[in-house]
Amino acid sequence: MGNCLRSVTSDDISLLNGGDRSPGAESLGPPPPYQEEAPVYYPSPNQRRPANQLTEEEQVRIAQRIGLIQHLPTSIYDGSKKNRECVICMSEFVYGDPIRILPCMHIYHLDCIDDWLMRSFTCPSCMEPVDAALLTSYDSTNTT
Amino acid sequence: MSNIAAARIQREFKEVVKCDEAAKCAIKVEMVDSDCMELRGEIAGPPDTPYEGGNFILEIKIPETYPFNPPKVRFVTKIWHPNISSKTGAICLDILKDQWAAAMTLRTVLLSLQALLAAAEPDDPQDAVVAKQYKEDPQAFEDTARHWAQVYAQAPCNNPGCSAKVNQLVDMGFTETASREALSMHSWDVEKAVEYLMS
């Protein structure tokens, strides 16, 4: 559990610092000049705010959200699933595409669904809230 | 990011063109500009509503962050409905705000708007005057909605009473639009409408 928490925190920092998932990006000094825009976050689906204007409470919520998202299982598309198309980008899955599987068993491209889950923690297909289902499934995978 | 948006809109556009509802002329969509970020939608007024027979034009703007954020939709055709502003055409509908889901498409949005015309939600109004009339004087609401659909959305239903009152005010020197709005707001009470126009 301690390990788990630590990995969550380090991910938070890398994502808040630019969302490019490269660990230690902040230690490389100021961002390159072409990176003019601050990363933008969505405290709710219709609110759009640059990362440096978020309240502390929102930062904590975002960090928690990133942590939760990372508990959701990921996989590589191998054609074994029923869904053939990612409904977010509406393109067909290609063998080898990184995917994420939600508790309701709907699958999406990893990048597509992570971007969505940062705005709304529900499945875009069935509107099932991810929180509750996630906690139950997390519990059951822990005990088995 | 906008790559996803453009690719999706092209697929959704085709979906609308090919769907059953389009074949029945219930919904329609057209590209306004070449980069697909602005579209023109059209929905038919649902049967057994005051909007029946009318054609309602919508302005659809696709944000760069689509489909993570909903399209911005507004009625271009003037319409009398509790959840749509009679002045600006702005729409109050949950799926165009916080209930938007990335799996929704142009087709489902157009069908939801058509459903909204058939089932208003006066407790969640966009236009307070219309919502009040809808709840307190359903007959006046229906007459007004029907009259607006006939004047602005080419619905065939004719209500000579409303047109006569509008003409009466026009003869007094008020513009047609202002007269219609004043009469609609005051449930076709000519005296109150005149009072409102004079104030």
UniProtKB/TrEMBL annotation, chain A:
Q: Which InterPro entries match?
A: RNF11_RING-H2 (IPR042981), UEC_component (IPR052804), Znf_RING (IPR001841), Znf_RING/FYVE/PHD (IPR013083)
What superkingdom heads the lineage? Eukaryota
Keyword annotations for this protein?
A: Metal-binding, Zinc, Zinc-finger
Which residues lie within the region annotated Disordered?
A: 1-57
* Compositionally biased residues, Polar residues: 1-12, 44-54
Domain (RING-type) spans: 86-126
**One protein family per Pfam:** zf-RING_2
Coiled-coil intervals in this record?
A: none
For the keyword Zinc-finger, the answer is yes
Q: Which PANTHER family match?
A: GEO07743P1
Name listed for the protein in its UniProt record: RING finger protein 11-like
Q: Which gene name does the record give? A: LOC100370934
TrEMBL record, chain B:
What is annotated as the active site? C92
* Name assigned to this protein: Ubiquitin-conjugating enzyme E2 K-like
Q: Which residues form the UBA domain?
A: 156-199
**Has keyword Nucleotide-binding?**
yes
User: Which keywords does UniProt give here?
Assistant: ATP-binding, Nucleotide-binding, Transferase, Ubl conjugation pathway
Give the record's family classification.
Answer: Belongs to the ubiquitin-conjugating enzyme family.
Gene encoding the protein: LOC100371392
Q: Name one Pfam family in it.
A: UBA
**Which lineage?**
Eukaryota, Metazoa, Hemichordata, Enteropneusta, Harrimaniidae
Q: Which residue ranges does the record assign to the UBC core domain?
A: 4-154
Matching InterPro entries:
UBA, UBA-like_sf, UBC, UBCD4_UBA, UBQ-conjugating_AS, UBQ-conjugating_enzyme/RWD
Is ATP-binding one of the keywords?
A: yes
